[in-house]
Sequence to fold (113 residues):
Amino acid sequence: MSILVPSLIYVGDTFAFDVPAFSDAIGTAINSGTYTLTWYARFNTASEGAVVVGTAEGGGWRVTVPAATTAGFDVGVWTWQAIATYDTLQFTAGRGQFTVKASVKYSGTPGAF
Fold:
């Protein structure tokens, strides 16, 4: 299964991606009709992370990470993991990394970049 989380994100931008329904190792369907999908992102600094719950989209899920969330992202390489849960069951839908870069947006007089 392929989850197309953007590989490059700018601080303060909104981004979204879809997570398709999938099956576990014995063929049981993991989909948005039964499971909740939560996307976690972490940075290599204490207390730096994000949690976003996906919404149902065509049997799978759509994850939308709002600008208010990415506004607090530190610049560098982040690791993410998408986990589907139902009751006591938990399945990893995907995992990967993305790079966060500073935005050039400013108000007033720009400082050095």
Summary: The mean pLDDT is 94. Helices lie at 67-70. The beta strands are 8-10, 15-19, 22-23, 29-30, 36-42, 49-53, 55-57, 60-65, 76-86, 89-101. The first strand starts at residue 8 and ends at 10.
